[in-house]
Design goal:
Layout (H helix, E strand, L loop, with lengths): L2 H11 L2 H7 L5 E6 L4 H15 L3 E8 L10 H19 L2 E7 L8 H14 L3 E5 L6 H16 L5 E5 L14 E4 L4 H9 L6 H19 L4 E6 L10
Parallel strand pairs: 1-2, 1-4, 2-3, 4-5
Antiparallel strand pairs: 5-7, 6-7
Helix pairs in contact: 1-2, 3-4, 3-7, 4-7, 5-6
The chain binds zinc ion.
The site of zinc ion (ZN) has 6 residues, from helix 6.
Length: about 240
Amino acid sequence: MNSFSRRNLLVGAGLAAVAAQATPDRLKVVVTGGHPGDPEYGCGGTVARYTDAGHAATLLYLNHGQKGCPSKSPEDCGELRTGEAKKACDILNAVPKFSVFMDGEPTVDGKTYDEFRKLLDDEKPNVVFTHWPIDNHRDHRAMSMLVYDAWLKMNRSFALYYYEVSDGEDTQMFVPTDYVDITGMAARKKAACFAHASQAPEKFYSLQQQVTRFRGLERGCGEAEAFIRLTKDTGHLLP
Ligand SMILES: [Zn+2]
């Protein structure tokens, strides 16, 4: 991130004096999601803004989405969706990473908390995004719990934001605290979502765009992504 955009970020957040001491010029952003596609649908515009500003982004998926293709074996489906995730990450200039769970069969216990924390710790993140925990999908809830536990165990060393995806069907009762104007990034976000071609993007992208347009109305712009910021985090680090 160059000094100009960094200054804008910090001044815009009103925390220049605090954040200038601890925030590196180039942020490491990690967006976690229960499946390939979740980070792109919930945060694709925000990721594009980060990477365009010179920050590094990783999309960390809980699994390979192995059960998301009715006519394919889990192995073939996982391979197909891994390729789709790589395409989506290329569009957003992000790096894809996967943890080891089977789609729909997450485990949240002492062992997996520790394994996941090590995975996240290796990324050395400044900012992490994850699912809002009240969600109808067990993989989304599991990811949210794993991230929150890692945040605690890593001494709250990164800013933590929750995002919304497939509101009503997945995310429930989401009341945002923060917004990012993604109007100028909508085309790239759409391309990243449509990279998940096996997952009916023509249906789900238009549903999610209803949400970003509504958040845009709240924010006062064309389209916005909305977040809940953990108030005990390290400061506002949205682009
Ligand atoms: Zn999902």
